Amino acid sequence: MKFKTKISDIGDPFVVKHEDLYYVYATSYKSGFYVWVSKDLKTFSEPKVCYEKNNKSFGYRDFWAPEVIYDGKKFIMHYTARSKKSDSLRIGVAVSSSPLGPFEDIYDGEPMFDFGYAAIDGHVFIDSDEKKYFYFSKDCSENWVNGVKTSEIYVAKLSDDCLRLESEPKKLITPTKAYETIAYFDGDTYLWNEGAYVIKEADTYYLMYSANHYADKYYCICAAKSKYPDKDFVKFDQPILTYKDINESGPGHHMMLKNGKGYICVFHVHTHKEKPSGNRTMCYIPVTIENDQFLFDK
Questions:
Q1: Which end of the chain is less crowded, N or C, counting CB atoms within 10 A of the terminal residue's CB?
Q2: Contacts of 215 (CB under 8 A, 6+ apart)
Q3: Per residue in 125-152, pLDDT tens?
Q4: Cα-based distances in Å from 55 to 59, 60, 107
Q5: What's the domain count of the chain?
Q6: Nearest to 282 by CA among 1, 8, 29
Q7: What is the span of the domain harbouring residue 165?
Q8: How far apart are CA 135 and CA 91, in angstroms?
Q9: CA distance 145 to 82
Q10: 275 SS3 class
């Protein structure tokens, strides 16, 4: 059953479970990121700053979409920010010995990588053979496809320490389905595939992502599948979670928390569904996957 938390005025929630506690990170703080702590994902601590921009930071604003992984020794945060040097969106990486932070940037004044275009929503996937992959969106703010500003999802090989890319990124998906080409923004046409998250079930890789504008009720969670982590993804015929499914506006930018044989799908919805905006609230729903179907316990 859907659980709507009291963590609001955020976006892009990400949860890490460590030593029986849940740590929640999100787009949440104009100069960095907050973290919330919970024993049960129902009650949460007051937010604490876990990353704060400083002289070593490459970014100066637009701190978005933090994702944190634990490698057994340290916590690694990949995040989006707007570069001081280029005034364009890039992805950075910071580390901490504690899930509470403080997270410190690895590269002094530089993003994790820079291919000369805006990049957002970094995601790490570690395969069953321990090979690592990094997914991100080439952002529509600087990416035109057939004359339309378009966000597209890319993948690259990731170093063992998760701190750098080891291959040129290649495009995986671009908006093509009718259900992901219905959003507009500021009177102009934009298209979005963003917020990638990858899971593997048996021998199938599922690339889950969000489509449409984040401040629109049509923002939704979608999926594609492949036999490979880095090519040949085929999109589902319909989104897997929309506003109609849960009577909430704009469910999207999710992550999947392993829970026994299934998962907990963590995502945001608009805090005021009658007036969608950047004010969003964290929700979660248990989900299982059977025969290529995502079965949400709504």
A1: N
A2: 185, 250, 270, 276, 277, 278
A3: 999 999 999 999 999 999 999 889 999 9
A4: 10, 10, 11
A5: 1
A6: 8
A7: 3-296
A8: 11
A9: 22
A10: coil
